[in-house]
Every structure is written in structure tokens, then in C-alpha cells.
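From the thread on structure requests for the teaching lab: each student submitted one protein with a one-line request. Submission from student K.M.:

"Model CX domain-containing protein from Caenorhabditis brenneri, C-alpha cells only."
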Amino acid sequence: MFIAFLLLFLELISIWVNGTVTKTVTYHADITTEFYNKFIKTVYTEDTDNFDIEETKKGKRYIIHSESPIEFQKYKYYWNDTHLDLNGLTNICEYRISWMIDSKELEQTYSAEGIQMKSLYYHCHFAQSCMGLECRVDSRLLVPPIFLTIFITIFWCFKKMLWRDMKREERIQRATIENTLNPQQMEAGPPSYAAVFSRVPPSYESVMLAKITYTVPSYS
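Reply posted by the TA:
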């Protein structure tokens, strides 16, 4: 599994280096986010020069300026993917407008020829993925570093355990060799009975009658 994710990571790098164009399609944005609401209010306000506005029976109709991109925050949005600004870019995002989800303004956006617009195009940098009308950090690129970190951690723990076992075996072998080369002297036991009593010991009766007094030499 780790090898598979590593190959995926290398493939993404090769796409970036070789300049292969990739187009990601996003069908709808999260219309509850602040970004989407700000985009609609800012781009479609009458004070901007993004559209020519016409009044129809259904309401306002927004006529695009096909050669001019829509600029909002750090993004530039285009109405077709053949725009000159998109030439040479490798990560192009297509946002497809949905009449069921998107705002009324996007639904009523038309070209000068009267064709209803179906998509918006924008560009994301390397290591980013398309998410609605925004670019987000590509989570796929985080998978190889995570697996690599786990692999290094497991390898480090295994190496530490192996090193600890080797040190323990080394201490045991060293102690065995030292005992073989320098055997410890047995401690001398207490003096024997014969050493204490140079002659035949007195009888029990003699000791009890206090006829014999015997002093045991001190060994301290």
C-alpha cells in the first residue's frame, strides 16, 4: 500500500514537471459558505463592469464580456477554457452551473449570442484541488508523507528494541567471560568443631556440674 501511494505521489510530480493539462469538473459549490455568497454579491453587483444587464420578462439577464475574466479575491474566472490566459496552465477547474442549486444570477448568465452559460473555469496551483469555486489543498498529497512517517516510526521503534536486546546479550556475555577468567573464591566457613576443641570435648555431665570451664576463642 505504501508503494502504491508513493507511485501516486511520483505521478503527480511527473504531471507537474511534464506540464500535462488536467481538467477537474466540479458540479456545485457549497452555497451556504461565506465565499459563495460573497462571490455572487460582489461579481453580480450593478457597480461592476463584469456584465451588461438586460431586463426581461423573467427578470434580469446578465450578458458576459467573454474576453474579460471575472476577478474575485485571488481568483480569475473565465467563461471558456480556450482563453489565452489559460494556455500553458496544467490544473484547470471547471465549475458547472446548476439551475437547481446555484443562484438566480448564475442561471441567468448568457453570452452575447444569447447562449446560456454552463460553466466557469479557473486555475489552481500544484498541490491544490478544485472544490466548487475555490482551490483547496490536495489531500492526496498528504497521504504519502503520513505513511512515510508511520513507516519511519515503526522502523525506529524496532531498531530501538533490537539495540536494547543486543546490549542485554552483550552484558550477559561479558559477565559470563569475567566469571570464567576470574572465578570467585569461596568464602571460608566457620572453624570446624575439631579446630575449636583441640582435645576431646567435655561430657555433658561435666559441663552441667560446672566442673569444666572452657573459653571459645574469638574470631572477630
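TA comment: Residues 1-19 have pLDDT under 50 and may be disordered. The first helix runs from residue 2 to 18.
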